[in-house]
Structure formats: C-alpha cells, structure tokens
Design goal:
Elements: H1 2-6, E1 10-14, E2 16-20, E3 23-30, E4 33-40, E5 44-47, H2 59-67, H3 115-125
Parallel strand pairs: 1-5
Antiparallel strand pairs: 2-3, 3-4
C-alpha cells in the first residue's frame, strides 16, 4: 500500500537483498522455488524472518534504552500539513471489529473401544477432515 501511494516498486517476502548502484535485487522463496526480482530505486522492500539472525538486546542495552529521552515531534516538525492527515484523508476505513470469542468448553470423550471413531466424528463435525 505504501509503495502504491508513493508510486514506487514493491518487493515483498524478501530473504536476501543486494543494492547495486540505482538498483535493488532481492531473492524470495515461493512455492515453486526461489524467485529473483530486480527493481530501480527508490523501492519498498519487506523482508521475512529468514533475512538474518536476530540480535537480542543485552540487559545493559535494555537499561540504557530506558534512560534515553523520547523526542515528540509535531506535524510541522516533520513537514506534514495538518489538512493532509486524519480521518478525512484516510485511505481505508474500519467498518467493524470484534474481539476473539471466549474459549468454549472442551469435549471429553471416554474411550470404550470406539474412541478413534468418536475422534474422527468430532473432527468431521468441526469440518477439519
């Protein structure tokens, strides 16, 4: 969505990124194998969890981050006109939402030699099989 609004290429589900001059080349896994895509910069690139090994913060780093000041910026500070943001200018709208329904009580099956049949019947009733 961001790339479309900006009018630039979008390369998604990337597992490897290479930037060469004014082009970006990405590799991504698909059901058919690995696909290589190339686009001119600027571009929006999204990556998946296979892009690298995560670096976990140390306790020292966490404590240092707590002491860092948080800077608040206004729309004017970042060069955005007030009339161009907000609900009136949103490109999407939430029509409805619902929370997760409460977890129902489970089904207890006593195996009297026909437990497998009851289990398959339960799965079929839930449209799992």
């Amino acid at each position: 969505m961001v790339a479309e609004l900006l009018g630039i290429p979008s390369l998604t589900h990337t597992r490897e990124v290479t930037v060469e001059g004014s082009h970006v080349t990405v590799r991504r896994e698909t059901d058919d194998g690995v696909t290589v895509l190339r686009a001119e910069l600027p571009a929006v690139v999204s990556v998946n969890e296979k892009i690298n090994e995560p670096r976990y913060p140390s306790f020292k780093g966490i404590m240092a981050a707590k002491k860092k000041p948080v800077e608040t910026k206004t729309l004017a500070d970042i060069g955005v006109e007030e009339g161009s943001v907000g609900l009136a200018n949103a490109t999407s709208q939430v029509l409805d939402f619902a929370g997760r329904p409460p977890k129902g009580e489970g089904v207890k099956v006593t195996d009297e030699g026909d437990g497998a049949e009851k289990f398959v019947g339960f799965l079929a009733a839930q449209k799992i099989v």
